[in-house]
Amino acid sequence: MACREIEMGKRKCECYWAAALQPVVFGPFTGETKPNKDVVVRNLTVSYQQETQSVIQYQYTSWPDHDVPSDTAGILDLLDRARSSCGADPSPLLIHCSAGCGRTGVICALDYIHDLLVATQIPKGFSILKVVLELRKQRPSAVQTQDQYQFIFSAVIHMLERFLQKSDQLYWKQQEVRSLSCSGVGREVPS
Known about the structure:
- Helices cover 41% and strands 17% of the residues.
- It is of the alpha+beta class and 191 residues long.
- It has a single domain (6-180), classed as Protein-Tyrosine Phosphatase, Chain A.
- A hairpin with a 2-residue loop joins strand 4 (39-48) and strand 5 (51-60).
- Helix 2 crosses helix 3 (128-138) and helix 2 (102-118) runs parallel beside helix 4 (146-182).
- The longest helix is centred in the last third of the chain and has 37 residues, at 146-182.
């Protein structure tokens, strides 16, 4: 959820969850945490007929409508949290803001680019513009403003830096293992 219920005095989203520990028709709300000033995490248990499903809702509260967050780290961390909570479970990731265009489009673009990067499937001729235009075929007005479009570039740079840093750390760990195995550890010392 990339919006608040009320922004600039206008209702932007209905509160579709219950107050803490208060069951409602669509299921009981089971807990809320705030891992940082920008994020609220809610654990919901949703029941319909005989089926019960656990849902984790992440709300990013510092993204103004028709604007961008002050930095990219917060939204990238939110996406990392959402991905890690899924683990190996192929549950769908659902994203929304107030209209489902600007903020939602940015998050969808970043998530898609992240998946390409992790799968090492960045195609030749990759273009953020092409990603946004493809999103707009599915949801007109996805990524509404120039600032949001530029935010994607900044976030992708930050994402690449994180990815390269993790890759570099993995590379050096592998080098340490190779160095240990080649340094004679466990070999007899010649006399």
